[in-house]
Amino acid sequence: MASVHPNYIKASDLLLINTVLTIPNVFLSPRNFATPLAISVLIAVIVFQIVIAIAIRNGVAWIKYLILVLFLIGLFEISTFVKIFLETPIIGVINIIQTLLQIAAIVLLFKIQSKNI
Description:
Number of helices: 6
Helix content: over 70%
Structural class: mainly alpha
Keywords: Membrane, Transmembrane, Transmembrane helix
Transmembrane segments: 33-56, 63-84, 90-110
Order of helices and strands: HHHHHH
């Protein structure tokens, strides 16, 4: 088995930390996560994040484009982000940390040179 570029491992670690930070957000959030639908969505999001981190750790090169697109879509929620930050600053700080982790992971992934070049 070929070795995986170290940036894949680093990016995967950053995204796993990002996933772990999702947990305190749930417990600190003023939103109601008591409904079965909300809990199901939360579990699905966490599983999706873990699957992406595992794919990155295994060196799946195309996943960086998926992460970039998802990150850019998430930027449309910047007004919600500001509102949350003003209402619950600790959640806002966690969200900022998560955003920085995501940016760092994306940068690491795009620094990896393609083997086809």
